[in-house]
Amino acid sequence: MDEDDGKIQRDVLVGSMQPMGIIYNVQVMTGDIRGAGTNSKIHMVMHGSKGLRNSGKIFLEGGAFERALIDIFNVEICELISPLSRVTIGHDNGAVGAGWYCEKVVIYCPFTGIEQTFPCGMWLDEDEGDGLIERELYEMVSLRQKKHKKYPWSLWIWTSDIKGAGTDAQVFLQIYGEKGKSDEIKLENNSDNFEQGQIDKFMIEMPDIGRLLKLRIWHEKRNPFAGWHLAKVTLFKTLTMDKYSFECGRWLDINEDDNEIVRELPAKGTLIDEPLPLIKYLVTICTGNVSGSGTDARVFLNVIGDMGDTGERLMFMSKNNHDEFLIESVFLGQVCRVRVGHDGRGGGCGWYLDKVLVREEGQPESSAIDYHIAIKTGSVNGASSDSRVFVKLYGEKGDTDKVILAVSDNDLRNYFETARTDIFTLDTYDIGKASLFYLTDKSGSDTGVQISVPVHGMQYMFPSHRWLCKDEADGKVEVEIYPSEVLEIEKLINYEITVVTGDMRSAGTNANVFCQIYGDERKTEILALKSRSNNFERGTTEIFKIEALEVGKIYKIRIFHDGKGIGDGWFLEMVDIRRLTMAMVQIEVEIIEELQEVVETFTFPCNRWLARDEEDGEIVVELLTEASEELEMNSYEVYVYTGTMWGAGTDAKVYITIYGEIGDTGERWLRKSNHLNKFEKGQEDVFSLTAVDLGVLKKLRIRHDNSQASPGWFLDRVEIVDTKDDTTYFFPCKRWLAVDEDDGQLARELVPVDEAFMKKGDEDEDDSEATLGLEQKGGGSAGWFLDWVEIDAQSVGQKLRFPCGRWLDKGEDDGAIVRDLFPNPLQTEFYTPFVPYEIKTFTSDVFGAGTDADVFVVLYGRDGVCTQQKSLCVNKRERRMYFERGAEDMFIVELEDVGDVIEKIRIGHDNRGVNPGWHLDRVEIRRLLRKGKGSETAIFPCERWLAKSEDDGETMRELQPSDIITEKLSRDGSLKVTEVEVEDALESIAYVIIIGVDHTQTERLWLDLLDRRKGFQAGSLESFEAHGSDVGEIKKVELGHDGATPEDCWLVDELAVAVPTKGVKYIFACKCWLAKDRGDGLTARVFNVLDAEAIAISQKTIYELTVVTGDVQNAGTDTKIFMSVFGANGSMEEILLQKNEDRFERGQEDTFNMEIDDIAPLKKIRLRIDGSGSRPDWFLDKVLMRNLNTEEVSVFTYEEWLSRTCGPKKTMICEMPAVVDEEVMVELTTYIIQVKTSDVSGKFQNLPGSFKTLHKQRQREAGGVALVHLKFL
């Protein structure tokens, strides 16, 4: 009776792990007559419906049972027997004055909500009445009441087993379900609750609130000894055995964790598919800007959403020393409203509240965007203003409030001074396209306003050029300005960057902090994280709104500071980046998804110092996203070799940026070397850099700041060791970085050389090939462990890896010494295929013409395409064999495909060896034609020395072709050889570039003349047809030539560009020189379409034409084929389908594009042949025409011969109706032809042949009618 709930009797269910009783509320009323009370033990038995079940004898302990008193008991049994049929009540008659007068018994079952009254009004006394001390009581049904049902729940609370975890505070809780919430429940007990490592058990009653969602638990004491560490809470519904768990594991203490004494816990259990998330809501309370608006009272706030509320929270711990508060709560759904108030205490408790802003922490405050307003004050006398300037923007979606321009972005102290531009940022909701600008000033003059909206990619110009002054001009101080020009600028998006500074001693910094974001598409510029507040203090969280480029999916960031200020060391805990993006979102429980705007969050944990005197001394760190699995951090050892020449060292600060296939390191200061005095003559300095893995390194950029007394530096080379895979990259330089040496540059970009992947042998020995993936078994045995084999197939553009990883040894593994290997598709690398070139060099027959140097060659095609530099000999032995006096040497090399025309070559040598000088006569380069139909040889004459001691001292020459020899194999097996001089053919070539919106443009469209004839003669008009990518609406056109020779001069009179697919033609009046030595020396000019005359022309449509030749004997043809197309809106002229050597062969499909007038829908086509050529007959299967705009396919089927001699029709012309989606576009039509013949004898003799036949068939019937079936024409 002195512990727990004081009960000395309990019902226990077999196998029960938790209390499962049903509580009945029992009220026993003693009568108001003399001697009615008793000291006996009272017992009771409750009988269920029909008396089949009962509670057993229950002793009502602890009751007073005094005259006119009501004793209340909570009786717990394992059976649900409500409603009751009767009650048995009595006593043991075991005390002095045992007699008892019972007035009535009232029993309430919360589970059924039924309250029953059982009247008695009789003595239970051996000396009174009938002498009975136990009576059967029956319900007075008229007094039965139906109340709200309440269900019994077993509540267990675990206090954590850590030091100081217990509390003496009063604990409360409230439970939320799908159908509502419980009342606030005060947890009381007779024992000492909530002690360290203790489990406290309670029975509570709640109405039906459906499936549980969350629980809020708190205590009321805010003193230093009220702290409580709660482990978890469980709720068990005793009737349905539904069990819920609420994990906590946190302090409820004003001195621990986040200093909160309220916790909300999401429900977990078998009935919960996915627990609701815990959300931190950032609440900003804005007090009005009126006199006496503040308050000293305690403010309470309750945030209410469609999935619950936060309960009343005391706004006690403000965030960042502003009126911002964090409320941690289980997800509320859509926030609907807030309830805010105060306790009315304090001297100045009155409070003027402006507004309350609620948002999830890290989410944008609203859909606001930034408008950057630049106002230029005029340069006239007295144009400046000291007045307050207001602006208002009007747009297609609404307008802003009137806003005062108070704080500028360019940190000027006095605003609106004469001839100065002030820049302000207006943060407001999106008003769409700006259409009006409203400016208010009391005195001053401005010349104009420029408003930039990077999020829209738009810039608006609002010209003013007027006074805003009561004493000037029209006296107006308010003006409405409309935009005169709207420009497109680079489009940016909003990023919200949250930076958390650690909560440890000296964790904050006064330095300037910067950040750079990397995505899978691009990277941002370096972003300064700054505001007007004192940022990056210990334990604070700062949120910065940044406008930057869209980078795609973010995979890393680089964050650093400049080390300036006192106490620049900084402990960074984490960084969060949030942005709005478009994603597919599932609509409720349906499978349907739609594209919606969602917030994408990237978390970058750090937990390290950025300080010169902490950890590794670095003030820059790269961070990966929390969910990153593909990438990892890597270390790079950087070896910097300073040259050995006089004055090669430097005392300047050296910076390096390393670029790989997966991003770059950003610029890093090479600060900590293995030598105290860095970058001295002939010295090797070693540095270590940590960054996100870059993959294969592509290049590096190295520079110095030109500081100190002797900043000039001669860099020999840089070597970088990737410690992840132990790969070394070699970056040769051998140049000065100095303003007074070489080309005066302080920065160099270096690329790795091929030898970086090979282990170089001795310079004096022959070069040896690398052996890849081989491991030789020791002991002189023939056994061999093969790791892998790699084959680089340059002709198909593939590098194939064949993994093995097994022994080839009779005594190891399975004893096999031969294995079949198969390529791993995941390790196959694809690149641009190489093509074979046959290169012949002709060394002149003059004294000392031969060379032992390493000869290399580079081929150049059109539009700047070129191959890599390729050595013709692979080792010293070959260099000694080739390039002898009078020799002709041939090499087969595979190089990048430079196209059909080789415009020039560069050939030279490295000037090494005993006799490096070389007299080259000519070079011949031969390559196969497309589809192997022959070959083409270009001849490049030289007849000059490549020697330091001869001629002009050059060891490298650029050669242009003089002749092109083409060899083709005829059908009769003979070789047809043609030779063309190319002096005129390869003079300057003109080109056009079409430029559209967003700077999209075509490649150079070369204006090639047919048969290599010379064009652009004085007074000539040349027409060309060029095909390029669609750039949308044309904005500009660039015309130029490649300026192959200095003498190329071209005076352009007029340029016309027609776009048949858009039905427009632009005519540009040029009248300017494109020449290096005429006019302004430019060989290219850009023309704006705004300056052109636009003429509408008939619109063209591009069709993809596929001609299918039948697969029968002798189906192919060499004859000329002509085609006409007929549509509902006209027809096209007959065109010749070019044979192009290999078209229209047996069983072949030939596809090419054609541009015709827009005559769709197509009705029919007509094909004819002229019967020329050695094979005049052709078996046509079908023709397909696909409209590239609408993707509609028209099929024209023939499946017959076009021939004078073959097939049943013996015709050389055919017409075919179009079939679109199995619908024939031309139907057979019946024509009724009436021919009236005169009754004069013999008149029919002069009729055309067809009518003669008709009338002969109709036996010359006067006025006869004939029915014939014709295709519609």
From TrEMBL:
Residues 22-138, 151-266, 279-391, 493-624, 634-751, 835-960, 971-1088, 1101-1216 form the PLAT domain. Transmembrane segments: none annotated. SUPFAM superfamilies: Lipase/lipooxygenase domain (PLAT/LH2 domain). SMART domains: LH2. Gene3D superfamilies: Catalase core domain, PLAT/LH2 domain. This is PLAT domain-containing protein. It comes from Xenotaenia resolanae.
